[in-house]
Design a protein that fits this description.
heterodimer; A: alpha+beta; 6 helices; elongated; B: alpha+beta; Aldehyde Oxidoreductase, domain 3; Aldehyde Oxidoreductase, domain 4; 20 helices; 27% helix; 24% strand
Chain lengths: 173, 836
């Protein structure tokens, strides 16, 4: 017989949430199957690809390796919590603008990992961006548009009136 | 899947407003073109960045069951019996399937219908599906697999193509050209021996290109639903819903009209989701048996078993050249390790010989290709499908030839380019050809002249070029119907919906439809609704493979939109009392070119037309031009247009560790014309990335002596480039419009991968003076080559010979310049086989 469900309360995307689930479930499974938030994806189930990253107490964690039970009383943020009042987060805006999301499957995890980076470092260098995103695999973009989108969003979040460079969108001359 | 109205409004504000005219392109664009060429966001971009896009595994239906597959632990075994009774007795298990429940074979190619949804009599690789379970949850389904008893009789396993040649028995399949050789091809275009006789230098080289896998971040998933009226619906992460539809109809023995296949947006494809798969058929059957929805999501390990990736390929090339680099003849041989099933393999094998002729003129050309069956997961089409391997061999081979002739490899290529609007020796029709411009871009940008053979030891630059098809000229199954169809619905409110069978895999195919229809009708692309990849709702498009989608759906969309425009223009012209030829569609208005103030909104134009003649809908379709070749095998290679790429790679090689790092790649791609420049940039960068991975680290490796088990079926062990390995990319878009492309557009999704591995290989040689004639170029191989060189041996690592194969008598075809008509020379008239 399946294990009896347990109930936890935690802050999910800024709202106090109660959810009941089988106690062996990972945070990934709880989010997708019990909270109905399918924006968080899976790529390997083993902590290898970074696709399931969410923010736990503002820090990126691999939700496939975190137990749902371990999140009681903590703050979890998923991609569904990034846009506020119908307005995209500057990272979401920049990813959309530059085509940093191609198939879009790894995108939620990249966005959240980048959000955590920018929260601690509003002016990251290209090297720091690479380092921060090194645990996330993307097979579509070659990461270039992702770096450029993070840089564009960072500039805008600093209040700069930043625009994409022409060679980003149209290539070098 | 389509752009909803809400998203559309948002998209217009942000997508159309932020970027104005392309900074260095507007002069080339006629003033009425408002969309083509611009770097707009994709119509599904908002859904993708908010996590709203529903991939197959994101779908949940009430009462849904979960499916798990039992896979063979043996690489090659006869299946004596399968007993699922204990599994079926487990609480929560609703159905168990074995091979006998789905006995009809299927396969993507009509000539290779060699797969069964569940192994019927034999398992052919470790991971071959043998039985399936549907249960109320995944845990119970997994538990039930352990209760299925399978009696196997292990058979001798074949672990490599060389072994397949050496051991024709036991046969993995009871069909194929010889023993365990699935396919043997022999083609000769002109007298190659005579070509070699004219040469100043004849050079032979052997190369090996290791197999690699697509590794889409999304694991394959499928959900089937059965309704009591006898209809099956399948949602699947497939690149080819039309072919899945056909396979389901065949295996389930249902009329196609009773089957609906919906391709969910693919979380990456790269060719790995192009075959109809066992798991898709199984969940459909399980849904029929249980009357409940059934879902399967493969584990990452299972995705490695589905595979269909790059064929490990041994390549042998012999070329005759004049002192100035003019090619006088070329003979190319390839041996592909196909794995356990046919998949696209026959086409892959032809592709290893098809496109050598489309970059530099090859007046006489001979190709011999063989594909072996082995007891490994089946190989198939991965980005570049059968052409990265020979392109790597050819471009490194040319680098060696240039050195021997004392020529700069960039100049060698520039001096010998296939002319535009020409026919090749194997009857491929070249249209626009921008390779020369591509080479000049990367040579200039990289400082090639100042750096090639001039950098300090350990640093190097290398150059390579390539070409790829913009869609296959022939369909996968023989028919005379269009390859792509589009329907257009104009709503009286002014909305336009585009229906097309094409499949969004992240490349932007949905957006292309919106851009093109919006361009023709003068609308905002973010106000176009797009409905795709649903066999109930959308006209057939063959699928997202062979870089065909933009060219073929684009042309079909132009036709449908032009037809709508004609209808609307006629009625608007009557209303305005002017000739229809004066009607212009722009900015959401329909107006008089001579007096732009006189006109109406697009919505009013639709209203007038609908009042006059009823509901406004049009269709468009596209069929590629007839190919020029008529010989057996001429079906692989023809394309409406060929893209071209050139790349320069910069490498640092550490002679102590053998580690190769790639700081930067300059790449130029002849796109014909960008429909969306930003989307093109993304495809180029993604292709460079994937080529970098294949060049340096990715390999599908097996323990040949230990049961042919995959060494590394996980994302941790299968090394692919992370942000820390990815190089900088400097991209140049060369626009040489092709008359066959929509607005001149050619492909970009696959071609830019091709020059990357050879450019890196050539750069490694420039850096440390050793040749690693096989990819991936791992540190071990570099060190081995350096050690050999230090000992005074040849500084080279790679295969040394191509095995003897009993090739069939070649099909001989006279090239166009020898009076050929594209057909084979009748056998009686052909010269006897020569030994080359």
């Amino acid at each position: 017989m399946p294990d009896a469900k347990v109930t936890i309360a935690f802050e999910l995307n800024g709202e106090l949430t109660e959810v009941a689930f089988a106690p062996h479930k990972t945070l990934l499974e709880v989010l997708r199957e019990d909270c109905g938030l399918t924006g968080t994806k899976h790529g390997c189930e083993l902590g290898e690809c970074g696709t399931c990253a969410v923010l736990l107490d503002e820090r990126p964690v691999l939700s496939c390796l975190a137990l749902g039970l371990a999140c009681a009383g903590r703050r979890v943020k998923t991609v569904e919590g990034m846009a506020t009042a119908g307005r995209l987060h500057p990272l979401q805006e920049a990813f959309a603008e530059l085509g940093a999301a191609q198939c879009g499957y790894c995108t939620p995890a990249f966005l959240l990992t980048a959000e955590a980076l920018l929260a601690g470092n509003p002016t990251p260098t290209r090297g720091e961006i690479k380092q921060a995103l090194a645990g996330n695999l993307c097979r579509c973009t070659g990461y270039i548009k992702i770096y450029e989108a993070v840089e564009l969003a960072a500039a805008r979040m600093r209040g700069e009136d930043a625009k994409p460079a022409p060679e980003t969108l149209y290539g070098s001359r | 899947m389509g752009a909803g109205k809400g998203k559309a409004t948002e998209g217009r504000k942000d997508g159309m407003g932020t970027q104005d005219a392309p900074p260095h392109l507007p002069a080339a664009l006629p003033s009425f073109r408002r969309i083509i060429g611009k770097a707009l966001r994709k119509i599904d971009a908002t859904a993708k960045v908010t996590g709203v896009t529903k991939f197959a595994d994101d779908l949940f239906l009430p009462r849904m069951l979960f499916c798990k597959l039992l896979r063979s632990p043996h690489p090659h075994a006869r299946i004596l019996s399968v007993d699922g009774s204990k599994a079926l007795a487990l609480e929560g298990v609703k159905a168990v399937l074995t091979g006998k429940d789905l006995p009809i074979p299927f396969g993507i190619l009509p000539v290779s219908q060699d797969e069964h949804a569940l192994a019927l009599d034999k398992a052919r690789f470790v991971g071959d599906p043998v039985a399936a379970v549907a249960a109320v949850n995944e845990e119970i389904a997994t538990e039930a697999l352990d209760l299925i008893t399978v009696r196997y009789e292990p058979l001798a396993a074949i672990s490599s193509a060389a072994e397949a040649i050496a051991r024709p028995e036991p046969r993995i399949h009871d069909y194929g050209d010889h023993g365990n050789l699935h396919k043997l091809i022999s083609l000769e275009f002109g007298d190659v021996a005579a070509g070699f006789a004219e040469a100043d230098l004849v050079r032979e080289d052997v190369f090996f290109f290791e197999g690699s896998t697509h590794l889409p971040m999304e694991q394959h998933a499928a959900l089937a639903d059965w309704s009591p009226d006898g209809k099956v619906t399948l949602w699947s992460s497939t690149q080819t819903p039309h072919y899945v539809h056909r396979a389901l109809a065949k295996v389930l023995e249902l009329p196609p009209a009773k089957i609906r296949v919906i391709a969910t947006p693919n979380g990456g494809g790269f060719g790995g989701k192009s075959d109809p798969f066992s798991h898709e058929i199984v969940v459909a059957k399980l849904a029929m048996l249980t009357g409940r929805p059934v879902k399967i999501t493969l584990t990452r390990e299972e995705v490695f078993y589905c595979h269909r990736g790059r064929h490990p390929t041994l390549l042998w090339v012999k070329t005759g050249v004049k002192q100035d680099g003019t090619i006088t003849g070329m003979h190319f041989k390839s041996l592909l390790d196909g794995g356990g099933y046919g998949s696209y393999g026959v086409a892959s094998t032809y592709y290893t010989g098809a496109l050598q002729t489309v970059t530099y003129p090859v007046p006489r050309y001979k190709f011999q290709g063989a594909r072996a069956f082995t007891n490994k997961p089946p190989c198939g089409p991965k980005r570049g499908h059968g052409t990265p391997q020979p392109r790597y061999a050819l471009e490194v081979h040319l680098d060696k030839i240039a050195e021997q002739l004392g020529l700069d490899p960039a100049e060698l290529r520039l001096q010998h380019l296939v002319p535009p609007n020409s026919l090749t020796a194997n009857y491929l029709r070249i249209g626009s050809m921008g390779l020369g411009a591509c080479i000049r871009k990367v040579v200039g940008g990289s400082g090639w002249k100042q750096r090639f053979r001039k950098l300090p030891f350990g640093q190097g630059v290398g150059l390579a070029c390539s070409s790829y098809i913009s869609g296959a000229g022939l369909p996968i199954y023989w028919n005379n119907m269009p390859h792509s169809g589009v329907q257009l619905k104009c709503d009286r409110g002014g909305g336009v919906t585009v229906f097309c069978g094409s499949t969004e895999i992240g490349q932007g195919s949905d957006s292309i439809l919106a851009y093109i229809v919006a361009e023709v009708l003068g609308l905002d692309p973010f106000e176009i609704s797009v409905v795709t990849a649903d066999t109930d709702l959308t006209p057939v498009d063959l699928g997202s493979y062979s870089s065909r989608v933009t060219l073929m759906t684009g042309n079909a969309a132009i036709q449908a939109a032009e037809r709508a425009k004609e209808i609307l223009a006629a009625h608007a012209a009557r209303k305005l009392e002017i000739p229809a030829t004066r009607i212009v569609f722009a900015d959401g208005r329909v107006f008089d070119a001579g007096d732009p103030g006189r006109g109406m909104t697009f919505a009013q134009a639709v209203e007038i037309a609908e009042a006059a003649q009823g509901t406004i809908g049009t269709v468009g379709s596209y069929t590629p031009p007839r190919s020029a070749g008529r010989y057996r095998g001429a079906g692989v290679g023809p394309s409406p247009a060929y893209s071209y790429s050139a790349a320069v790679a910069e490498v640092d090689v550490d002679p102590d560790t053998g580690i190769v790092t790639v700081p930067r790649i300059w790449i130029a791609h002849d796109i014909g014309r960008s429909i969306n420049a930003a989307a093109v940039m993304g495809q180029v960068e993604g292709s460079v990335y994937m080529g970098l991975g294949e060049a340096l680290m990715e390999e599908m490796a097996y323990r040949g002596n230990r049961n042919v088990v995959h060494k590394i079926p996980s994302l941790l062990e299968y090394k692919s480039p992370t942000t820390l390995e990815m190089c900088d990319v400097v991209t140049y878009l060369v626009e040489d419009p092709d008359p066959n492309g929509p607005f001149g557009a050619k492909e970009v999704g696959q071609g830019p991968l091709l020059p990357v591995p050879p450019a890196i290989a050539n750069a490694v040689y420039d850096a440390v003076g050793v040749r690693v004639d096989e990819v991936p170029i791992t540190p071990e191989k570099v060190l081995k080559a350096l050690k050999k060189k230090a000992k005074g041996e040849e500084g080279r690592v790679g295969p040394t010979r191509f095995p003897d194969i009993a090739w069939p008598e070649p099909i001989r075809v006279a090239p166009p310049w020898e009076g050929g008509d594209g057909g084979a020379v009748p056998v009686a008239a052909a010269a006897p086989e020569r030994q080359h």
